[in-house]
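Thread title: Can someone regenerate the structure for this chain?

I was given the following input by a collaborator and told the matching structure tokens would be attached. They weren't. Posting the sequence so someone can regenerate them.
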Amino acid sequence: MADTTDQRLNQLKQKYASVLNSIQQKGVRLSNVHVENNKLLIRGQAPSDAVKNQIWDQIKLVDASYSNDLVADITVDPNAAPAAAAGSAGGAKTYTVKAGDSLSKIAQQFYGDSSAYSKIFNANWDKLSDPDKIFPGQDLVIPA
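Best answer:
Regenerated them for you:
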């Protein structure tokens, strides 16, 4: 039974990877991510209504009929500072890969250290399966 639950959790986390990535990037504090009643339950607090709405927009992009396999209980943190909404992405940027780019080259450009490529790879785990396989036209998140 535990294996089945773990498989379902991994399956749903993969399906909603872009949502989980947005949650991480936008500073939503998660309290739960697990399977309950065969649905992925995501519970957390967003720093603002705007961030909460962006998360819901991302959920609807993944699956407009999300209610079949997802329960998202995203509330707004009443103690969040108003400035949290503006800086919630933590200074992350977006970069479009060009011909001849590598994660090391991009890391050198943004961080001055080519060995920091793993920081970019980890921020884009939903899009990249291998740090050596990036393609022109891909939009990558470059964390601060």
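The first strand starts at residue 29 and ends at 36.
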